[in-house]
Amino acid sequence: MKENNIEELERQFQEKIDNDIKIEPRDWMPDAYRDTLIRQISQHAHSEIVGMLPEGNWITRAPNLRRKAVLLAKVQDEAGHGLYLYSAAETLGADREETIDDLHSGKAKYSSIFNYPTLSWADMGAIGWLVDGAAIMNQVPLCRCSYGPYARAMVRVCKEESFHQRQGFEIMSTLANGTPEQKAMAQDALNRFWWPALMMFGPNDAESKHTEQSMRWKIKRQTNDELRQQFVDITVPQAEMIGLTVPDADLKFNTETGHYESGEINWDEFWQVVKGNGPCNKDRVDARRKAKENGMWVREAAAAHAEKRANRSKEKRA
Amino acid sequence: MSNANWPLWEVFIRSKQGLSHKHVGSLRAADAQMAVENARDVYTRRSEGISIWVVQSNDVFASDPSEADSLYEPADSKVYRHPTFYDVPDGISHM
Ligand SMILES: [Fe+2]
Ligand SMILES: [Fe+2]
Q1: What is the architecture, at CATH level 2, of domain B1-61?
Q2: Could you tell me which Gene3D superfamilies the record lists for this protein (chain B) (predicted)?
């Protein structure tokens, strides 16, 4: 294609985006837009799938049947979220098998929050409340993302997420109002998950290399720091309400701005975990690889069964 | 053999009697029966549907978005196909 032709296509493309017209799979799009989306959507899909592991760890040890049923339903939802997102990535031409291989080889990233261990039952509370809470904060603006299939997947995901956060908060507030030991357990979970939850929004805006272009393409609708601030403003009063203390000595409410001011995030820790040196990085990827290997015979059997069924219906027709 | 050999299916759900099936997403499955079962598990966990259609994605033939102008222009220029095109005198009702 001639150079000026590409420029014209790019101009028309940006004009559509500026006018809030969604981009659909078969529409022309710049390669960089496609690549950015494939990277972001597949990372998002991996996060949903790997995110099942820390919670899956507690399903058999839930304190009662109600909690167990709820946790099971939540983890099952996350599997569905992974599927919606892998499908959205496929509409851009990403190969499903390759995408998953990239996760297993360590080439693809997923949210670093899932590289922290879940040490007590209270962690199920902290994860639902803080981790799903932060995820919702990230995902709500994505419902208006410029790429149609991603935006539609996010609408489904956000509808399903709302119970995830509530069930987590319910666990936390039950523990916080329980025995002193239970309250200490809830506080300990908050202490361990608060900072990693803030890190979920990604590097500060000044350090975030993709933000500007992604905002122009309306893949991203709010910056990392804006979303993180919203999360802090909403969550701190919730912690106070149930009598827990946010583990940030520098945290204070600014009456002039109406916002909380937080202490500095430990970015060294963030980058260490992103680079693969978090407490559970190796366990998580190993678990995914093992799940794929152990499920191999099921996939083979299903394929063999499908073939047999197809042959049988062919014979019937003959 | 792996998932790579499982075809992609488009999923359509009828949310209640009286409404048409609507596209909700896609999934991979070994055959149509499995596609319906998987669709039940992922797309109707909250009673979103009472009937499921699955169609292999390869079998969908779609119009080309770059031809949209020539495809839809003939309709755009025929405004007289809409009732608002016509003048109805004051005092006339039920029309
Ligand atoms: Fe999710
Ligand atoms: Fe969730």
Answers
A1: Roll (3.10)
A2: Phenylacetic acid degradation B
